[in-house]
Amino acid sequence: MLSIISLSLFGILNLFLGFLKSRRVLLPATLLFIALAFAANLLDWNHQYVYFRDMLRTNNLFINFSSIILLTTFLTVAISRSFGTDEEHTHPAEYYAIMLFSVVGALMMVGFENLIMLFIGLEILSVSLYVLTGSDKRSLRSNEAALKYFLMGSFATGIFLFGIALVYGATGSFNLSAIGSYVSGGPTTGISPLLYVGLLFILAGMLFKVSAAPFHFWTPDVYDGAPTLFTAFMSTVVKTAGFAALYRLLTVSFTGVYGLWWQVLTGVTVLTLLVGNITAVYQSSVKRMLAYSSVSHAGYLLIAVAAKTPQSPSAILFYSLAYSIATITGFAVLILVAEQKPIEGRPDERYEAFNGLAKRNPLLAFSLAVSMVSLAGIPLTAGFWGKFFVFSTAVDRGMTNMGMVLVVAVLMSVVGVYYYFRVIIASYLKTGDSEPIGIRPLYRFILVLTTALTIGLGLFPDVVRQLF
Amino acid sequence: MPYLSLLIILPLLAALLVVFLPNRNQTTFRWIALVASLLNFLLTLLLFFRFDKSVAGYQFVEQTDWITLSLGPLGVVSIDYFLGLDGISLPLVLLAGLVLAIGAISSFEIKQKQKAYFALYSLLSASLMGCFVALDLFLFFLFFEFMLLPMYFLIGLWGGERREYASIKFFVYTFLGSIFILLVMIGLYLSVADPVETAVAMGLVPGKELVDANVIADVQNYLQEGRIEADQIVHTFSIPYMAEPGNYLPQSLLNIAADHVLFGQSARMLAFVLVFLGFAVKLPVVPLHTWLPDAHVEAPTPVSVVLAGVLLKIGGYGFIRIAYGLFPDGAIVFAPWLGGLGVLSIVYGALNALAMNDLKRMIAYSSVSHMGFVLLGLASLTSEGVNGALFQMVSHGILSAMLFLIAGVLYTRTHDRQLDSYRGLAARMPGYVTLTAIAFFGSLGLPALSGFIGEFFTIMGAFNSPYLPNWMAPVATLGIVLAAGYFLWTLQRLFFGEFWSKHEAGLLTDVTPRERLMLVPLAALALMLGILPGILLNLTQSTVGEFLKNF
Predict the structure, then answer these.
(1) B414 pLDDT exceeds 90?
(2) What distance in Å separates residue B145's CA from the closest CA in chain A?
(3) Could you tell me which chain B residue has the CA closest to the CA of A462?
(4) Chain B touched by A392 (CB under 8 Å)
């Protein structure tokens, strides 16, 4: 709770710091704010608190999820450089503040105890992201992406809100546990059909946010159009928060109708895995490939949600952590490489831009390779354990229920190897121009840190798992 | 003395040393890799002499806890750093030690990016060795999966023209196979309990070292009666524990007695098929073999040598240790299918080899054919067949390493491996002819050379087997006839007749001392094993005898 309050205050503080018009103050200040929020977050460890008449609840799971969100935000802010090219139109203070505010929304999504809180959290997060997507004001693609995201996002929110209303109509409550006791208690009149429709609408809204197929159509365009830094932010923070919220909602409130949403989710999972992975193969831009890869990882995460075993939360946690770290690394390298040789003023995000990266900057190439290997799920990296835990939950649920999903997931992780390795092939096996790429110390530090984390979690997954 | 850890650590240290040494002295890197692999080879020889042949169980065992994950209501998962050696793995460890040392000598011809090459080569050596000595399924999988990365880069960076295609094809094929194995691995660890650690978790004994056979029997009884709390059950990846039906949780997915059904099939049968497919890609079994010719043709000589000499054997080793060791019921049910696939590989590989004009591609297909004998021998489930399969693996490791070195000799001189570019080489390269003839005759199964023993025993096993139909052994012998056909025809086309070559005659010089240093010991070994097969069969037979009691 302290983290939510402090982040809101820090966001406002950040806006005032903007008067200094100095990036040299802003960046360290923002990093410090996030670090403080991270520390404040940890204070509540091993305590359970309920706030504002059952609106928010914090417990260890909340702290774990919000730690991942804060960590990814920290990493994203640390690799932020300039926003736009001309001084007149860049407002770093605003962007940092909006990022902090959106994290507030994400934290509320993790800790909600009431559907209204979930809605508010989701809106804070989404509205901030609409702005961030369009932050490259002069770029047509960025504008298009923001508008598209905004229109489709508000439509999804509308459906989501309608779902909440229907559930309220059926149960007479917004409270998660109250809905839960209605659903599993089995009211004398039977469960109202309104609840089923409402649940499906809520699911559609949530699945839109985590970009699961068939609600994923906005993802590639928005991820492609947004400035890469915010693409990294979106594809990690939103996903972690979205899955935390989805899992919490489905397990606390709707366990009683598992038979219904399990079927929906397995269908969506299979579709997401197929669409995400197969489409990623055909991309010629690394940024779009990473966008579709984020769709496919939503599919893997959905497996753990659909399995709904006691191990699911920790599997989701570990997977989100591994995925976020690797994705941030991937995007961080992409930012640097793409800026090297812009085509017609736009960053060059094609695979060809990575040619000969191993020669141009070995550190970049190595951390990129590690992150891709981790995303592909190869042992000794964090991504492998993520897949391992997720598949374990599915096997544990039973092969009769999850067998089909597992088969698809297995085949698709092989497809994944193909497109992730294209980047490695380009940077190690192909020859390109030999202009070296220079990086700043902080950037270098972040890359070393994320690479070390990916390998460290791959070697000793139990260190982190003991926390959950 | 932790001999087995040393086998893994030595090449790892070499890799680290190569990475951290400055770039100035490129030539030191190959010496580091060579010294490490030679030391490793000496270590395997030491193991050979210290190994107690009469004991069927694991020797030189090392075990320490590595990862312990508490899964709450699902119990505890324990992953151990668990190494051991028995009569099945020792011959393969010896083979790996030898071939990796030969490969390191052969790597001296690599002139570009030496630092990266020798670091990757040493890393590959470590993970290959690790595969053969790991007794924890998870550890095995780790090595199994990890070796893909160095191999991928070794083919992709130092390979021929189509190296990118070949390397990614290699990677994707084997990765698909290993994901199948991963699935079964998850099913196994959810099904199997570690009786020793469970006893400690239950509080029956204060410490692991106090657990004796009685306690284990007690725990297994409690387990079968369902009297252990779920959160006290310690799940394990240990292969020896997985091989004992008593350690399976009642009603768990892969328990024999529970007989779960998935997609209309028995869960255990399905698991056997998945593991089989996973290793079949590596062996390789037709029709999953198509990555092999591509990988071999594009790979540089030393990498081909290691690929054919050691990597393929992991497929065969995986069959014995994991597919057969953990699912003996599946092995019996599917024996005719496996034997049939073996025969198919033998004949199809041989027919393809007959049609090839590229020397390396011809050898690659002959590998497919020869590894088919391994599958046939294993499928027979007879003592002759399984011992023969192990023998055939070692013999093929030696001979195929030789064959690829021979192809390399020609390639380094002219960068051309097409058979129709040469005629009558015998006149200009007498030493080369002799060594080639030994390798070819050994491979086609001439008595007194090692290939004969392996093929003879596997076919004999197939004849005697109660599980295989009678037609299989005679059809498999067809493979030997075809092998004689393609090897002799190649010999004739390359070496006999008037000397003629597309290339300058001056390029075609006889084998250099370095090449002789690699080829002569291999030839001597092929001859030695052909005359005294007992050296190897004595190592394997007691373990194999114990192994066959499961069937």
Answers:
(1) no
(2) 7
(3) B69
(4) yes
Say yes or no: A373 contacts chain B, CB-CB below 8 A.
Answer: yes
Structural domain including A16 reads 2-465
**Which of B298, B292, B301 has its CA nearest to residue B410?**
B301
| B37-77 confidence digits (pLDDT tens) | 999 999 999 999 988 888 888 888 888 888 777 765 566 77
Checking if the pLDDT of B273 tops 70, the result is: yes
DSSP for B328-396, written as a single string? HHHHHHTHHHHHHHHHHHHHHHHHHHHH--BHHHHHHHHHHHHHHHHHHHHHHTSHHHHHHHHHHHHHH
Question: What residue numbers bound the domain in which B529 lies?
Answer: 334-541
- B-chain residue closest to A427, CA distance: B157
Non-local (6+) Cβ contacts of A181 within 8 A are: none
pLDDT at residue B71 in the model: 64
Q: Among the ranges A44-53, B122-131, B492-501, which has the highest mean pLDDT value?
A: B122-131
Q: Does A414 touch chain B (CB under 8 A)?
A: yes
- Between the two ends of chain A, the Cα-to-Cα distance in Å is 19
Chain B residues whose CB is inside 8 A of the A380 CB are 142, 146
* 3 state DSSP class of B76: strand
Whether B471 maps to a domain, the answer reads: yes
Which helix or strand (DSSP H or E) is residue A51 part of? strand A49-51
CB atoms within 10 A of CB A274: 17
Structure tokens at B237: 């990846």
With bands split at pLDDT 50, 70 and 90, how would you rate the model's confidence at A90?
Answer: low
For the cut 80, the answer to whether the pLDDT of residue A345 exceeds it is no
Number of domains in chain A: 1
Nearest to B68 among A400, A425, A462 (CB): A462
Given CB atoms, is B156 within the 8 Å cutoff of chain A? yes
Question: Please, which pLDDT band fits residue A188 given cuts at 50, 70 and 90?
Answer: low
Contact A380 B70 (CB under 8 A): no
Give the pLDDT score at B397: 94
- Using a CB-CB cut-off of 8 Å, the residues of chain B touching A431 are none
Residue B236 included in any domain: no
Number of domains in chain B: 1
Within-domain flag for B416 = yes
Residue B536 lies in a domain: yes
Give the per-residue pLDDT at A154: 92
Taking CA atoms, B66 is separated from A105, A213, B78, B138, B355, in Å, by: 39, 39, 8, 11, 51
Q: Is the peptide bond before B521 cis (omega within 30 degrees of 0)?
A: no
Touching check for A379 and chain B: CB below 8 Å? yes
Scanning B74-103 for CB atoms below 8 A from A yields 74
User: What ipTM was reported for this prediction?
Assistant: 0.76
Q: Quick count: other Cβ atoms within 10 Å of Cβ A191?
A: 18
The whole-number pLDDT of residue B448 equals 87
CB pair distance less than 8 Å for B183 and A406 = yes
As a whole number of angstroms, the distance between CA B108 and CA B103 comes to 9
Q: What is the DSSP letter of B249?
A: P
Residues A24/A63, Cβ–Cβ less than 8 Å: no
Report CB contact under 8 Å: B141, A379: yes
Rounded to two decimals, the pTM is: 0.85
Token readout for B19 is 């990475």
Cβ contacts (< 8 Å) between B147 and chain A: which residues? Answer: none
